[in-house]
Design brief:
The protein is mainly alpha-helical. About 40% of the residues lie in helices and about 10% in strands. The chain is globular, with a radius of gyration of 18 Å.
């Protein structure tokens, strides 16, 4: 049986060396390096606080909870890692799949409008395979239809 990997991480000596200090200190979870990262990231993006999580799955789960999607629809893409849409289900939301662009495999923003209902709480876009979604267009549209 052939396996098709979803992704293959690429690490070199810099990443391995960066792990040495926390491993030797005994802080492999939420320790000083996590706090340093949160503070530096918050400064970088110009906000008062930032919270580091263990995965993008956890971040999506938290974002959906904060957005209050329970019982609400979330327009999303089928072309993504499964966690994007599983997290909607974890939070009691209803995924509504939209079309994708043939060339980029990203959300086809021109087809999203017809999916919006009074139960739409969020629109999720994924930058697929290195192709970025036009975020200005996506945000402008989302702000105009999602309350």
């Amino acid at each position: 049986m052939s396996l098709i990997p979803v992704f293959k991480p690429s690490y070199d000596e810099a990443e391995l060396n960066a792990l040495r200090e926390p491993f030797l200190s005994g802080w492999v979870g939420l320790g000083p390096k996590t706090k340093e990262f949160e503070e530096r990231f918050a400064d970088y993006i110009g906000v008062g606080h930032a919270i580091a999580l263990n995965s993008a799955t956890a971040a999506l789960h938290l974002a959906y909870l904060v957005a209050g999607i329970k019982g609400q629809e979330v327009i999303t893409t089928p072309m993504t890692f499964v966690s994007t849409n599983h997290a909607i289900l974890y939070c009691g939301g209803i995924p509504v799949f939209c079309d994708i662009e043939a060339d980029s495999l990203n959300v086809d923003l021109s087809t999203v409008e017809e999916l919006v209902t009074e139960r739409t709480r969020a629109i999720v876009v994924v930058h697929y395979g290195g192709y970025a979604v036009d975020m200005e267009k996506a945000l402008d549209f989302a702000r105009s239809v999602v309350i």
